[in-house]
Amino acid sequence: MARLYTRSGDRGKTRLADGSSVPKDHVRVEACGALDELNAQIGVARSLLEHNDMGRFLAGVQSTIIELTSGIANPVDSGAGLTEGKIRALEEETDRADGCCPPLRSFVLPAGSPAACALQVARAVCRRAERAIVRLGTEAGLPKNALPFVNRLSDLLFAYARWANVRAGAVEELPQIPGKAAH
Hints:
Strand 1 and strand 2 (21-23) form a beta hairpin. The protein is mainly alpha-helical. It has a single domain, classed as Up-down Bundle (Hypothetical Protein Ta1238, Chain: A). 60% of the residues lie in helices and 3% in strands. The protein has helices at 27-48, 52-73, 84-99, 114-139, 146-168, and strands at residues 13-15, 21-23. The protein is elongated and about 55 Å long.
């Protein structure tokens, strides 16, 4: 196996999947980095989950994130993209998780159980990855369904955070906004 370090990035450049060299702050590198951070944060959340059903589903999501990152990393051939089935699976799982939670009547604070907090951080990172992918899309083509996938994934992560709190018996905290009654 080759060494983990190449020294080629010491001057602020990196190579994309097609072999081209770009600055490390290039929008394509930013999108890939945000997806990598998202994947790592989902791994943290999985390590804190007490229920295997969420963890198993998220393991599949992590594999899909790697597939998406690979497509984004290649400016010449972004691959086949993600199937509609992967989007539907996110929607169905979001509906399942949301159905196990009390109706949402206002904003909730990202707090509660350790797993819920980790899922909320993953949701925020997912939103940042989505913004980076949108920026990339203004300059170049994107893998098919890249934006719908990350958009639905942030919804799932929010639903999972709420569900993790329900399962842990943690009460959702509502924001305290002066002059507004909590619902």
